[in-house]
Amino acid sequence: MTTHGRDPGLDSLLDLHGQTLFVDDLGHWVKFVVVRSEVSPERPHGLDYSLTLHAPDGARLVGFDNAHPVRVRRGPGTRRRAESDHRHRLRTIRPYEYRDAATLLEDFWREVDEVLRERGSLP
Fold first, then answer.
1. Which is nearest to 61 in space by CA: 26, 88, 86?
2. First vs last Cα of the chain: how many Å apart?
3. I want to staple 50 with a disulfide (CB 3.0 to 4.6 A). Which of 33, 38, 97, 121 is the partner?
4. Residue 4 burial class via C-beta count within 10 angstroms: exposed 0-12, middle 13-18, buried 19 and up
5. Phi/psi of residue 97, nearest 5 degrees
6. With 0-12 CB in 10 A as exposed, 13-18 as middle and 19+ as buried, what is 82?
7. DSSP secondary-structure letter at 113?
């Protein structure tokens, strides 16, 4: 939650910019790209971000980013959201409801842990 327009977790998220961390002994790694941007309909929170989990061979397994708009649904009547926030899991792309920086990090790490468990990297 923001307090008086200030996102208390924002500094922690911005501090991760440029970091690449190995998350297990098998070689899975995460990468953070987080910079301030102009506030716009696509980025109402004023951030340009990409948080990703990669397999040892470099393939992206999980990603939370706002690099492009996403469709809300498929088929007739398809429309794109104004906000570009979304998440990738393997080949699936779903809209993501950005609330604040701390929640973004929690959601990302939760998804990372789930995928690593599925791949047998975590108990």
1. 88
2. 31
3. 33
4. exposed
5. -90, 95
6. exposed
7. H
What pTM did the predictor assign?
Answer: 0.86
State which H helix or E strand residue 89 sits in.
strand 86-89
Q: What is residue 69's predicted lDDT score, i.e. its pLDDT?
A: 78
Instruction: Give CA–CA dist 35/49, Å, rounded.
Output: 6
Kindly give, in sequence order, each residue whose CB lies less than 8 Å from that of residue 61, ignoring residues fewer than 6 positions away. Answer: 28, 53, 54, 55, 89, 90, 115, 119
**Tens-digit pLDDT profile for residues 13-34:** 999 999 999 999 999 999 999 9
How high is the pLDDT of residue 29?
A: 98
What would the two tokens of residue 96 be?
């993501």
